[in-house]
Model the fold of this input.
Amino acid sequence: MTAMTAEEAIEIISDYHQNNPDLRYDAFANGNMTFDVKVISLSLMEQGGSGNVGMYIVTQSGGFWLK
Done:
């Protein structure tokens, strides 16, 4: 089994959010063979907010949950 990449972790969360064009994603390896994927809303940022929608943990098997 090949190790998951940050791009693959982002794709999993983007698919979950139905590829919403308002959302952007940042992925960070957390050292436990999982990725933290931060979800950011561009429209919330334009309104002066932080844009943070949530943070997901994505496992090597493709499972994920809201942190």
Summary: The longest strand covers residues 34-41.
